[in-house]
Amino acid sequence: MKNVLKNTMTCIGISMMLFCFGGTIQDIENHGNYLFENFTFTRYVFGSLLVGLGFGLPTIVYQNEHIPTPVKIIIQMGIGCTVLSLTPFITGTASKNATISQHIGTTAARIGIAFFIYLLSTFYYRKEAKILNDRLQKIKP
Predict the structure, then answer these.
(1) pTM confidence score
(2) Residue 126: burial class (beta carbons within 10 Å; 0-12, 13-18, 19+)
(3) Predicted confidence pLDDT, tens digits, the chain (141 residues)
(4) Residue 18: CB partners within 8 Å, gap ≥ 6?
């Protein structure tokens, strides 16, 4: 349970960081005239929190040794990407002027970013495992 809490907090942190990065880009694009009204900022923050929970809480499946790793990944990424895709519509932050194809493109970009972050973390943990294995090999007689 401690790992799930740690993973969830990490996912929320990543989500909030990307939210801040995206907000900065939009502020620059709007030449410093990025206007929030009708609790838009609060809805963005809530959505960012929801996305972090959507990717973090499903990490509980990694505690079960009987589930194959590819299935665990599909469960976590499936739940996370579903939450990521639905959050703009749940929070009311999806553009009402956008066409269906624009919504699909935006959703595809979000999912692409999610898988990119997943790949980065996978490479990081594989590198860490290799370092640990190398250390263990040096210790063995």
Answers:
(1) 0.76
(2) exposed
(3) 888 899 899 999 999 998 899 888 888 988 888 777 888 888 989 999 999 999 999 999 988 899 998 898 889 889 999 998 889 888 887 788 888 898 899 889 988 988 898 898 889 888 999 999 988 888 876
(4) 48, 113
